[in-house]
Amino acid sequence: MTMTLPELPFSKDSLEPYISKRTLEFHHDKHHNAYVQKANQLIEGTEFEKMDVEEIIRKTAKDASKSGIFNNTAQAWNHSFYWNSMKPKGGGKPFGAVEKMIREQFGGLEKFVEEFKNAGATQFGSGWAWLILEGDKLKVIKTGNADTPIAQGKKPLLTVDVWEHAYYLDYQNRRPDYLSTFIDKLINWDFVNSLL
Ligand SMILES: [Fe+2]
Questions:
Q1: Of 110, 163, 117, 161, which is closest to residue 140 (Cα–Cα)?
Q2: In percent, how much of the chain has pLDDT > 70?
Q3: Measured in angstroms, how far is the CA atom of residue 138 from the centroid of ligand 1?
């Protein structure tokens, strides 16, 4: 299928002061858009043209000769998931089904926060930190560059982009501060609950 750049699910100034309008202009309009356009160029006229995005990602994940298609398609998917992982006035204490699971499986919010922040902070270079569901268990993982849990058929619930383009204009080298802010002020727990 031809991919299209989705609209952000919030206005570009609505995450301020935590993520600036300027960051979102570059991140969504330039970076995310470039992945979508490049993926469309690369799949045009190939067997992948008729597949849905997740199928393309799964089919190209382990094929080095298809790394361009994988990288651009996975990055397009990851960014759409990341936008949904945030909302204005989000973050802080979880509620609903995910609150119960975090409490029972991590032993409380603090342990989840520690693991999630650690995954993002220790991802060397570019990549993503994730909360995923394996069976009925929550798990925190990290992936490098464009890699994505859906390449392995895993079910993501939440992600944070730790590529420098996600935070450098607002936080420069302070990735841990960006991660803390994401957790405290931006996580869209409604979105996470909608996936459980
Ligand atoms: Fe990004």
A1: 117
A2: 99
A3: 24
